[in-house]
What does this fold into?
Amino acid sequence: MLDAAPKMLVQVRDLKMYFPVYTGILRRHTGDVKAVDGVSFDIAQGETLGLVGESGCGKSTVGRSLLRLYEPTGGSVVIDGEDIATLSPEALRRKRPTMQMVFQDPQASLNPRMTLAEIIGEPLVEHGNLSAQDRLRRIYDLMDQVGLNRRFAGRFPHEFSGGQRQRIGIARALALNPKFIVCDEPIAALDVSIQAQVVNLLEDLQDSLGLTYLFISHDLSMVRHIADRVAVMYLGRIAELSPRDALYDRPLHPYAEALLSAVNEPDPLLARRERIILQGDVPSPARPPKGCNFSTRCPRAFARCHTEKPQLSEVEPGRHVACFLYDTTAQAGSTGRPEDPEHNQQGEPK
It folds into this structure.
């Protein structure tokens, strides 16, 4: 008997998040910063999707837009069967327990005037109707799950280390038994010695509670440890979406290839990739290139790349790439498209 297809808990289609630009004395709307420009992906129930890319590519904006902490400019975000982008404020409030977020800075995301018990218990007060005794029992259970001593319940955030504060944030996110959690660079502000502990905790919680994660990070080594699939973003768009092992072994998109070449390999004997140094600067999201967003820095760009935007399409089983190098529908000739990816930017064999 064939296994049933996994249920897609999160389905994102053509998500856009534009921030308007106003100039002049009259504050006229003269343009938009296209932080997220047509992003689409699915996350299966119980899966971890890693979202990586350099600073400013729109990773965190995607995470906040999924939970409607930002109002999306366009597109749909279906979580557990409901389109978050179209829900009324009251319906969105009822939906909040299903989806939660762990923020990047554990100090800035915790109220310094509230005790640990009050922070973890706040979602239970806002969305639940438990008695004070049951609420305290639930708070203690959550503290046990994330490895916090119950004696710390009356302490304030400044009395904890960075790793402990992040555990508080994780416990708060778990309070309402969510199905989907956006982890927005949850280890970026932590010491290296603590990062592995927090990631291992997230993995253990996923196994025991059946959680689904969007794990946003610029730490490619840690993403390789926790993610099932990885989406690589560049300037507001997804360049490549592939299973983890396939991506790290053989990246397809030129940007993914350059990004992964920067990952340090602890064993020099295993360091097979030659470092790829990209030329030029990342364009402004307020004025992205006319064609492919990566065309201004891509060492393998050709004529078509500067005039058309490639769409994310499946080029191998489970592997999606937004690159004309893998467009098998077009013919070489007037567009200057190489017939296969093993060509240089002039379309001549290497």
